[in-house]
Amino acid sequence: MTRSLKVLVAAAVLCLPALPLAAQSVAFESDAASARSGSADAILSHPRALAKYLHLTSAQNTQLQALATTLQTSVDALRQARGPLCATLRTDLGGTPNPATVGTDSINLFNNKAAIRTARQTFDTAFSAILTPEQLAKYNTLKQIAHYDNGPGTDILGECPPAS
Question: Is residue 20 part of a domain?
Fold first, then answer.
């Protein structure tokens, strides 16, 4: 055997003990990804996963899809409005801020967040109404696990997109 071939074989033999560790790492990452995709939050935010989890009938699934589309349309429009509202607040906070103007800007952001919460609550109420008692119990448990019923949280204004 040539010298380079001997070095290659020696390197391969030395790497063999590391293979089980590498395989274990890949398996762990795969398990973590599948756990996230099956989390309560992931199920609640994907209508197909929610329909499968709750074993919805085809009629219930059709209603869910319509409710989810309405929710998404409403929330998307409200989220798009947040950017300009946040930009206005940032601008009005510059220099010597006028308290009345800054207060109005803050109220507008608060109302935007409240409208998103209302849209989600409207979806939740309408969706809950089409479920059987068993499905409703599973749905409510899923919401508790995902902490969907925590209320408005500590940030009354909500998230603002980064300044451009």
Answer: no
Question: Does 24 reside within a domain?
Answer: no
* Digit-coded pLDDT (tens) for 66-97: 999 999 999 999 999 999 999 999 999 988 99
What amino acid is encoded at 57 in this protein? Answer: T
Residue 44, domain member (yes or no)? yes
Parent domain of 112: 40-145
Structure tokens at 86: 């946040």
Q: CB–CB of 90/137 below 8 Å?
A: no
Model confidence pLDDT, tens digit, residues 126-153: 999 999 999 999 999 999 888 765 554 5
Q: How far apart are CA 108 and CA 67, in angstroms?
A: 26
- What pLDDT is stored for residue 8 in this prediction? 53
Residues in contact with 85: Cβ distance below 8 Å, sequence separation at least 6, in sequence order: 105, 108, 109, 112
What is the spatial distance between Cα 56 and Cα 49, in angstroms, rounded to a whole number?
10
